[in-house]
From TrEMBL:
Signal sequence annotation: 1-33
Name of the protein in its database record: Gfo/Idh/MocA family oxidoreductase
Keywords: Signal
Pfam families: GFO_IDH_MocA, GFO_IDH_MocA_C, TAT_signal
Protein's organism: Gaoshiqia sediminis
Keyword Signal: yes
Length: 472
């Protein structure tokens, strides 16, 4: 693959505008599905938790009539063998990506590797004739983003970005209310996300805690939230200003160990995690450390951590909507608060706020529940959206069936669209392609640059994609 430093970025950007503007109108799911006959032949690169579960076992169990895994690739041969067992498949495994593509000739490649390497496999897969499904974030900097867009144009292949949050029942209902202008013209948004001391801390144990691998949580985690904002607001971001710091994890502790298993401070550390209690974690990671040296239960106080654990971002959109966003990684509870301010009223919603509902919440189990594929609606439980119009003291309370598993029910709906019925109706444009992937990460990249350089950053500094005040 041509090195990014050798790519003439300006030469690419001179033609990128027409490409990406046109791509906005296309359905990336239909484009991927249209290239295959019979069962969709899938290959996957990256066999960690996310790959083997959401993009692996869930597909095998629910879509075997439509799909077939023909190959798995990873740098860790031990993890590959366990991935086959866990997913319930029997296909060839490879430690060389190009060998896998040449041997198995898949229709679609699923990319679930370390974030900073996504571009390598996305681009190479398209160059070798495959369509691509990639985990978010699409990539971690503006040059890699440009290279992906250029490769998509050059090869004629297509990329789906796995934004499952869009498909959630609650978030989809919010989109519907906004599209119908229930409270008039949108002017500003307040969006605040809280990761608790179980889920939030876990990012700092893993490779995500090092910015050269994950690009900071402004990319790995917040890209979900930035994509939701772009989708809800239906306009492009134009300017970003941000603050961030590392004040809790990493070097901000008086003691640290090599990892939790070998730590001398287990009785003192409230964040101690015994990985050996999880059979799956042992089989996937600890039993295979000898192959690649990856430690899953790293110390979250280690000095190598160099990402932010608190972030605040201001975003201005091309249609003049303003956003105030924050991400906290050590909250006592997990959840979010969201408000849309409009000319004629306001829409509020929330999840996981303890004083909003009379039930006990096990914070240690929340993320596991969200990641599960047990996405059954509970008719006796519901989430709330409050719609309140100016001069009207009585708010309208919109009740939405509560689904906690599978990212609010979004996982199965995303999978259905890709693997079961690519032509299903999609009036609110849930399906996400490379332009959506680019717009979400460009906010995170701009926020990171703003923090590092102490200034506001215009999106046009990072790309020449034409920025639209109103998307078609």
């Amino acid at each position: 693959m041509e090195k990014l430093s050798q790519v003439n970025r300006r030469q690419f950007l001179a033609t990128a505008g027409a490409v990406t503007a046109g791509a906005l109108l296309a359905n990336p799911v239909q484009a991927v599905a249209a290239s295959v006959n019979g069962k969709m032949k899938l290959a996957m690169v990256g066999t960690g938790v996310r790959g083997t579960s959401f993009w692996g076992r869930a597909i095998v169990e629910n879509y075997s009539d439509q799909t077939e895994f023909v190959g798995l690739c990873d740098i860790n041969p031990g993890r590959l063998e366990y991935a086959k067992e866990y997913m319930g498949i029997n296909c060839p495994v490879f430690t060389n990506f190009e060998e896998m593509i040449n041997t198995t000739k898949p229709d679609v490649v699923i990319v679930t590797t370390v974030d900073s390497t996504h571009h390598e496999f996305i681009i190479k897969a398209m160059e070798m004739g495959c369509n691509v499904i990639t985990e978010k974030p699409m990539t971690t900097d503006e040059d890699k983003c440009s290279a992906i867009l250029e490769a998509e144009k050059r090869t004629g292949k297509n990329v789906i970005v796995g934004f499952n949050y869009r498909w959630g029942i609650l978030f989809s209902k919010i989109k519907e209310l906004l599209a119908k202008r229930e409270v008039g013209k949108l002017t500003s948004v307040d969006f605040h996300w809280y990761l608790n001391t179980y889920h939030g801390a876990d990012y700092f144990r893993r490779w995500h805690g090092e910015r050269d691998k994950g690009g900071t949580l402004l990319l790995h985690k917040a890209t979900h939230h930035f994509d939701l904002l772009n989708w809800w607001i239906d306009s492009d971001p134009v300017e970003v200003s941000a603050f961030g710091a590392l004040e809790h994890y990493g070097k901000n502790n008086s003691f640290r160990g090599a990892n939790c298993r070998s730590c001398a401070y287990t009785s003192q550390c409230k964040f101690y995690w015994d990985i050996t209690k999880s059979e799956r974690m042992v089989k996937l990671y600890t039993s295979n450390e000898k192959y690649d040296g990856y430690i899953r239960d790293n110390c979250l106080w280690r000095n190598r951590i160099d990402i932010y654990d608190k972030m605040a971002v201001q975003i201005k959109y091309a249609n003049n909507v303003q956003v105030s966003y924050s991400l906290t990684t050590y909250s006592p509870y997990e959840g979010w608060r969201l408000a849309f301010n409009s000319m004629d009223g306001r829409i509020d919603s929330w999840e996981g706020i303890p004083w909003r509902r009379n039930e006990l919440v096990n914070q240690a189990q929340l993320n596991a529940q969200e990641m599960s594929q047990d996405a059954k609606e509970k008719t006796e439980e519901y989430d709330e959206i409050m719609v309140m119009k100016n001069w009207n003291p009585d708010p309208q309370l919109v009740k939405v069936p509560r689904v906690r598993g599978g990212h609010g029910g979004g996982d199965v709906r995303l999978h259905d669209k890709i693997f079961k019925d690519p032509n299903m109706a999609d009036p609110y444009r849930h399906a996400a392609g490379t332009r959506d992937g680019a717009m979400s990460i460009l906010i995170g990249i701009a926020a990171r640059k703003s923090i590092e350089e102490g200034r506001s950053v215009k999106i046009s500094e990072l790309t020449d994609i034409p920025l639209m005040a109103v998307r078609p």
